[in-house]
Amino acid sequence: MITYRTATIADAQAIGILHANSWQQHYTDVLSEAYLKEQVIEDRLEVWRLRLEKATNKQHIILAEAQGRICGFVCLFFQEDPVWGTLLDNLHVAYNWKGKGVGASLLKAGHEWSLERDANTPMHLWVYESNKAAIAFYEKLGGQMKGKATHHNPDGSSALALRYVWERNTD
After folding, report:
1. Of 44, 64, 123, 140, whose Cβ has the fewest other Cβ atoms within 10 Å?
2. Residue 150 belongs to what H/E stretch?
3. Phi and psi dihedrals of 96, rounded to 5?
4. Prediction pTM value
């Protein structure tokens, strides 16, 4: 059974490791091999430690847990953009939990959190153009592509990303 809850500082390490593993599995065409092998774990652990230590009321992180382990998470920043609204900054699901509804449930829970705060605030995210599986997933859940931009990555590289937007609900 999968349960969902708000993350705490005690979850920083598990979130960081899941995030790093996800990047290692899915971003070999976006991030450098050296970064993925030598730096990504340390980098993501530090990112999540800081995010959870210095959390604001505009940030919300929801965890999916099964058998006492984190199997996915979503991180949102409420009204991060004046036009596009709440930023869904991260959505990652452990490899062995993909295809079981965890990602869809996390996306929906995150969007509901945003709409509860302001029903007129859209939600958006950035996805690498090369991440075809994620793009298909977001489109299946009602996301609409509304723009492109070059994103600068933590390894010093850059890649084209697409903005996907949800105006109201994700049903």
Report:
1. 140
2. strand 144-152
3. -75, 0
4. 0.93
Q: Which of 139, 148, 131 is nearest to 27 (CA)?
A: 131
In sequence order, what are the beta bridge partners of 150?
Answer: 160
Q: At what angle do helices 40-53 and 12-26 cross, to 10 degrees?
A: 140
Q: What is the DSSP string of 71-140?
A: EEEEEEEEEEETTTEEEEEEEEE-GGGTTTTHHHHHHHHHHHHHHHH-TT--EEEEEETT-HHHHHHHHH
Domains of the chain: which residue ranges?
2-166
Q: What is the pLDDT of residues 115-147, one digit of tens each?
A: 999 999 999 999 999 999 999 999 999 999 999
Angle at 133 (CA atoms; ends 18, 102), nearest 5 degrees: 50
